[in-house]
Structure formats: C-alpha cells, structure tokens
TrEMBL record:
Domain Jacalin-type lectin: 316-450
Keyword list, A-Z: Signal
GO terms for cellular component: cytoplasm
GO molecular function, one term: sphingomyelin phosphodiesterase activity
Organism encoding this protein: Parathielavia appendiculata
GO terms, biological process: phosphatidylinositol dephosphorylation
CDD domains: Jacalin_EEP
Range of residues in the leader sequence: 1-22
Keyword Transferase: no
InterPro entries in UniProt: Endo/exonu/phosph_ase_sf (IPR036691), IPPc (IPR000300), Jacalin-like_lectin_dom (IPR001229), Jacalin-like_lectin_dom_sf (IPR036404), Sph/SMPD2-like (IPR038772)
Annotated protein name in UniProt: Jacalin-type lectin domain-containing protein
Length: 451
C-alpha cells in the first residue's frame, strides 16, 4: 500500500488557499527515473558490484532523496528493500511484494499520488536465466499529475514499471517478446484514451536483431526519448553498448523509457540522460550493474477535452469516451449531449448519453430502471453528483444525479452518505465518461469539453 510522508506537489496544489478552492494546474513538468537496483541476494548474484548490498541500497535511497526525482521505478528491489526505503523520503511509495522467491522486485517512489495500482505477473518466463524463480512482471498505476481540491478537474498519466525476461538464449528471447507483447495488450485494454509512460528494465536492445517486440512499441505510437533526443530520431541498428558508469548518452542500454500523449493530456520529452555519475559509491565504484535512466517531460491538459478526478472502486473493465469525443472535436466542432440516460435501482447500473450527432456512449449493465432527460439546444450538463457504497466487499457507484444549466436534473440509483459533486469548469460542460464498469458502474470520472 502507499505510504504518505508529507504533501506531494499534486496534494499541495489541492489544498484550500485562503478559503478558496484551488484549481488543478493545466500544465507543468515532471521527471522520471528507472533504476535496476541489483537487489538479488548476494549469495545468488553479486552483479559485479563492489561493496555490501545493504549499504549500497541505503546509498541509492539517499540519492533518490538528494536529487528529488518526481517518479522512480525500481527493479530487482528484492531482499534489501528496507535499506532502500530507510534513506528515501518520497511521499508515496509502493509496499514491497517480498524478497526472493515471493516478490517481483518492482516498486515505485513518487511525489505524486495515484489510483488503481496493480501487479501483473508475466504469462511466460524462461527457466534458463532463472526468471521463473520469482513472479516477475510489470506494475500499473494511474498517477495524478494535478487535481483540484474539490476533485472537479484532474490530470492523469498511466505509468508502467517493467522488468522482462533476461538472457539471449532462444527461450529467453521468446519469453521476452511475449512479456513486451503482454504489456502492449494490457495498455490497449486498460490505458485506452490515456497518456502513458512505460519505463524500466526491458532486457532488450534495438541493435539486437531478435528483440523485435521493443521496436513494435515505437510502431504502435510510443516515443523513446533516448531515440528522440540523443539519437536524432534514428533507431540504432549497430551495437553501441554503454559502459558503467556511462559518461555519454548516445550509447544503448537495456533500460528504456517509452511515452505517448492522449486527447486529455499532451506529453513532450525535453531531456534524456544516464544518471550514472550521480549513483556512485564514495570511492567511485558503481552502485548497480545498470545505468539509471532519466527523462524530463512537459505536459499540458487537453485544449478540447479534460476530465474530473475518479470516484468509486477499482473493479470492472476500463472504458474511455475520450477517443470517440476527440474524433468529434476534429470533425464536427464541439460535442454536445442531446439526451442523458441512466439506469439504476439499489445501485447505479449504467450511465449513458447520446450526442447531437446521434453517437451513443453507454457503460454498465442493463438492469435497473432507465431514466432519460432530453437537453435543449442551449442547455448543457454542468454538474454531477455521485455516491458510492460497498456491495459484496467491493466499492461501487450507487447513485448519480446530473444537473443542467437550465436547473433541471436527472438521477438514478440510491444515494448514500459517501458522495462527491463534480462541477464543470467555467465555459466547459460534461460530454462523456471514463472509468470502470461491468454489470454495474464501479468507477467514474467525467469528460469535459468547451461549450
């Protein structure tokens, strides 16, 4: 679970200032660091790193604190995890999943809060390099770069921490390809419509002919900031391996970063570098057998679409109306709901709307009683109230109430004592949804567009 030590940038921005609700930022910058911390037990692997592993882990954690990175993904954070965290002061940190053979070695340390953190085990591994001895895989979280104090507006980016199968034997390569393809499939299912940053130890090189899956990420719309900023956009085909510590940034390591934008937030990498010389022992020796990698990004909330914070539980399948709504902004101007339709009884079963061009957006099940409201030509959906509760040990949305600019309302489900109100920013209105749903609605956020 997350551990909060103080106030993150996102949380600080969400505080009440002189009694006035603080708005979410609509632009900013953040940086990421990926580092394989060589935390396998010394008896299993020395990694060619001098010194005591516990001491080295503590020194790595202190450097995380010293340089104040915004979001850090670590790999091989196994049996020396406590020493790493003891000297780090990041506000939000994942709890360890355990040492060898129980944990996956993946953890995140961040200045920003997140929702929906998950650990996913690889479907395939190769015993040849010992990768099947631990439940290696990847992690997922939805990081809140910015969030208003009333949760009405928010900016999220999906982060993936990966550590793929190692080795160069046929079985290793097959497993590694499957690992990266598994991440790509997960992104397609769970990050549709969202900005994404994937960073960690891919055990892959562009210059290794058989590592084709890592290049397929570039073909699917991701950008590697190392290729973009250090290689002039040219993916290398000739091997140019990095020394450790590396004092140049054009050589290649297996640790990589990939990113993409979305209709809700634009990302642009401004810097990539190896942080190797920052992570050295007092005598100049390395702290890990991997060069840490760093990237800096500027971000901006969408000009045509934005969203609220999330409300509810982490259940059901992910959905996002953002891609559909983005296509409307580019072809027909500004999307506008013509009709709202909700279904509910004891809980909220579904939410939906029809746009003025006839496009229907519906999420959830078919149970409950349907209620609809037709909006006038100059009438907008400007406010929503949600209530949540527990059903079968799971948090679900129990109630929704929509209010329009004409003072009319539509409600469905059953109100509870745990509720939140979402008000569209001035000049904007609610035009769609993102969240998770199955037979009922489990989690919701609202998508806004300018009037």
């Amino acid at each position: 679970m997350k551990r909060a030590l103080g106030l993150s940038v996102a949380t600080s921005a969400a505080l009440l200032l002189d009694g006035v609700l603080a708005a979410a930022a609509t632009s900013g910058r953040f940086n990421v660091l990926a580092m394989n911390v060589a935390g396998l037990p010394a008896i299993l692997q020395g990694n060619g790193v001098p010194g005591d592993k516990a001491t080295n882990a503590g020194l790595i954690g202190s450097k995380f604190t010293q340089y104040g990175y915004d979001a850090i993904h670590v790999q091989e954070d196994f049996n020396y995890h406590a020493y790493l965290y003891a000297t780090d002061n990041h506000t939000y940190r994942t709890a360890t999943s355990g040492g060898v053979p129980f944990g996956d070695g993946l953890n995140t340390l961040s200045k920003y809060d997140w929702v929906n953190f998950r650990r996913i085990k690889w479907d395939q591994c190769s015993i040849g390099s010992g990768d099947c001895l631990t439940p290696k895989g990847f992690t997922f979280m939805r990081l809140a770069l910015s969030r208003s104090s009333d949760n009405t507006t928010a900016v999220y980016v999906d982060l993936y921490n990966i550590h793929t199968d190692a080795g160069v034997e046929a079985g290793d390569i097959t497993a590694r390809q499957a690992n990266i393809n598994q991440v790509a499939a997960y992104i397609a299912a769970w990050s549709t419509g969202n900005a994404v940053v994937v960073f960690g130890d891919t055990n892959s090189r562009y210059s290794r002919t058989d590592d084709t899956a890592v290049r397929s990420l570039l073909a699917s719309g991701f950008t590697d900031p190392w290729v973009q900023l250090q290689r002039g956009g040219v993916v290398p085909t000739a091997e140019n391996l990095c020394a450790n510590p590396s004092t140049v940034h054009t050589c290649e390591t297996v640790d990589k970063i990939f990113y993409r934008s979305s209709p809700l937030v634009t990302l642009s990498a401004t810097e990539f570098r190896y942080e190797s010389t920052r992570f050295l022992q007092a005598n100049g020796s390395i702290l890990s057998d991997h060069n840490p990698i760093y990237a800096d990004f500027i971000w901006s909330a969408g000009a045509s679409l934005r969203q609220s914070a999330f409300f509810g539980g982490d259940y059901g399948a992910w959905f996002s109306d953002a891609p559909t709504l983005a296509s409307k902004t580019s072809t027909t101007g500004k999307p506008k709901p013509a009709t709202l339709t909700f279904r509910g009884a004891s809980r909220l079963d579904s939410v939906g709307l029809m746009l003025t061009d006839g496009t229907t957006l519906t999420h959830g099940g078919t149970s409950g009683t349907a209620a609809s409201l037709a909006l006038g030509a100059s009438e907008y959906w400007v406010e929503a109230r949600l209530c949540k509760g527990e059903k079968d040990g799971k948090t679900r949305i129990f109630y929704i109430r929509a209010a329009t600019s004409s003072g009319r309302a539509l409600a469905a489900g059953t109100a509870t004592a745990s509720c939140a109100t979402f008000v569209a920013p001035g000049g904007w209105h609610i035009v769609g949804f993102v969240g998770q749903a199955g037979d009922e609605v489990d989690q919701l956020a609202f998508v806004y567009a300018p009037k």
